[in-house]
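Morning. Coffee machine broken again, so started the prediction first thing and wrote up yesterday's gels while waiting. Chain of 210 residues, entered below exactly as on the submission form.
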Amino acid sequence: MLDLAGQVLRLSEGRSLSGGADCEPALASNGRAVLTNTEVLRPGLPPLRLARPGADLAGAFFLTDTTVLAVYDPGKNRPVRLPDGLVNYERRATPQQLQAPNAFVLRVRNGQPVSSFRYRGYYEGMGYSVPHFSLPAAHISYLLDEKHGLYLVPMAAGAPTVLKFAEMPRFVPPQIAQEVRFEMQGEDAQFAFYADTLNPRRVRYQRLQD
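Came back before lunch.
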């Protein structure tokens, strides 16, 4: 972050080519917060750090100008010695960590959670991916879990819900006027969704490729 004279005010980690969270630098719509790969910066306040003990940040993005969604991968990579003497790393998490919520809607102002839930739809390749799409017209954000369906995260206060693939009809043309089409890439498949802006739980879908 630079000031208008080009002086460095703050350095934050970014996403490297080999790993990191799915978290692009972003400015809140009201201009009063900046999301980086590790924290939320707010004028006149200390940075809101997104790190949590016993987990790695998988991804984060603004829901509104006052809330941010942060998703975590529980456990930590630990060294494991292989039979040939080489050392590899594997993620280990306790059963409690695997059952506890790992996605949090946080208030930008104070970091307090508005809601939390368990989400398994993220995946890791060359860094984490959290497939999501925000639909401001319906005040909702969709998270893809390619094995189960969509998580609907309200932009206003409210608990997230799950819309299973079995509850979504397959898309048959034509597209309806109030539908918004968007695509999301999972770990093994790509999907197109057609969401009704008047009813965000009314979604049709296509499986585009495996």
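The longest helix spans residues 95-99. Going to sketch it on the whiteboard this afternoon.
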